[in-house]
Design brief:
single chain, 437 residues, alpha/beta, 2 domains, 10-stranded mixed sheet, 20 strands, 23% helix
């Protein structure tokens, strides 16, 4: 039995463990039918032309973990941003860990998707927002079919969330191979502001395949500041599907830092449903060995007087493969749009590969749109200049690569997180820089 057949047959068992009277029961049923029809994507699909899932799908994954390992905070402390006080939603092998988490219902809801799906008081939000922007695509539909656990965050109007929210998924190696399908719903109402940090972390060398879906709704004048840290083990693969719906005058930012994992695919889609919206998508990818990172982005400008900014940096060594497929769509009605898209890459090895495809589809005539990509190596002249001034070659190369990615780091608004990302970059480059950018 292949993985597709196993998942389809497992759906019946999954249905028996949950409430069939749930408000999303019919949505789940329709979603599994969609997945059964479409199956997993392949390189025959244009959007997946440069990314194959064959090496992931051959494993015999456990779909429902039999038990949850207990983890002590000291064992996993290094994966938290522990320099500051935060809310925490922690999952171990797909199960909620109450003793490691810090959730709240004090004026805001920072809690579990399972609670929101099963309790009547959350039903209005679920009915208005759940699965409204997630498209009927293969992997997203698969997640929808099995959606039960993940983060549920609802920030009512006129709220400034005083501390960031951390969402962390740990896998412990309890199973020989494990598949996880977290589902996050984040609704930020009018005039509210929230910062969120998300991480998927395997603590084992056993294969882990995570198929995650996050729906984010930024309502009128909302600010959503979202950070994804992807620095997993080399037997862990992640398909991250994130969909962002924005209303007028909202500002949503998503930063993606991809440093680890076997295969990572980031599907990041923004839909601008209002005027004077600002969307920001930035990322840094540093990978080596045979790692593979694929960024697939979309910004859909639907109404006039909006902006979007995409800036992705990639540094690839050894046999690493990078993919950037970014699309900006500007509707006929979306006049006065200002859209910027850039993908810049450095190849440190003759065997490293980058496939980049920035795209513009513009149907309006009064717009300011630009896109471009670069692929190159480190500047030999700059490297020679630094060596002449006593900087060892290894440190000089690292400093040049830090400078290359610095404009992405500049827009990180949580100082402690910026410091952590700087150290992760230094570790990836094999140096101790001794200062923070």
């Amino acid at each position: 039995m292949d993985l597709k057949e196993k998942l389809v047959s497992s759906f019946l068992a999954f249905e028996n463990t949950i409430d069939v009277d749930s408000p999303v029961h019919d949505i789940r049923t329709e979603a599994i039918k969609t997945f059964e029809t479409t199956g997993f994507p392949s390189k025959k699909d244009e959007a997946w032309k440069y990314t194959s899932l064959k090496s992931i799908l051959k494993e015999d994954y456990s779909v429902f973990p039999k038990q949850q390992n207990a983890l002590d905070y000291k064992e996993i402390q290094k994966y938290f941003i522990h320099d500051i006080d935060t809310y925490k939603i922690i999952f171990i092998d797909g199960k909620y860990s109450s003793h490691l988490s810090h959730v709240t219902h004090d004026g805001i809801d920072v809690c579990l998707m399972s609670s929101a799906l099963n309790k009547p008081k959350y039903r209005p939000v679920i009915e208005n927002y759940f699965n409204k922007i997630a498209p009927k695509e293969s992997l997203t539909s698969l997640n929808t079919a099995f959606s039960n656990e993940g983060a549920y965050i609802h920030i009512p109007k006129n709220k400034l969330v005083e501390k960031p929210i951390q969402i962390i998924h740990f896998s412990t190696g309890n199973e020989a191979a494990l598949m996880l399908q977290p589902r996050n719903l984040i609704v930020v109402d009018e005039n509210s502001h929230v910062q969120i940090i998300e991480r998927h972390q395997s603590l084992t060398e056993n294969p882990v395949f995570t198929n995650s879906v996050t729906e984010i709704y930024g309502n009128k004048r909302a600010i959503v500041d979202y950070y994804k840290i992807q620095n997993d083990n080399k037997n862990a693969s992640l398909i991250d599907n994130t969909y962002v719906d924005q209303k007028e005058q909202s500002h949503c930012l998503v930063h993606t830092f991809s440093f680890g994992g076997k295969i990572t695919r980031n599907n990041l889609n923004f839909y601008q449903n209002g005027e004077r919206i600002d969307s920001t998508m930035k990322g840094i990818t540093i990978i080596g060995d045979k790692q593979h990172v694929d960024h697939n982005t979309l910004v859909h400008h639907i109404e006039p007087n909006c902006e979007s900014h995409q800036d992705y940096k990639g540094i690839f060594s050894d046999n690493a493969i990078g993919v950037f497929n970014g699309k900006v769509v500007v509707n006929k009605e979306a006049q006065k749009t200002n859209a910027f898209q850039a993908n810049n890459n450095i190849l440190l090895s003759d065997k490293a590969t980058i496939n980049t495809k920035p795209q513009l589809e513009i149907f309006a005539d009064d717009v300011k749109c630009s896109h471009g990509c670069t692929i190159g190596q480190l500047d030999d002249s700059a490297l020679f200049y630094m060596k002449q001034r006593g900087i060892p070659e290894k440190e000089a190369r690292a400093l040049l690569m830090f400078a290359f990615s610095n404009n992405v780091l500049d827009s990180v608004k949580i100082p402690e997180l910026k410091q952590r990302i700087t150290k992760l970059i230094a570790n990836k480059l094999g140096v101790n820089i001794g200062f923070d950018l």
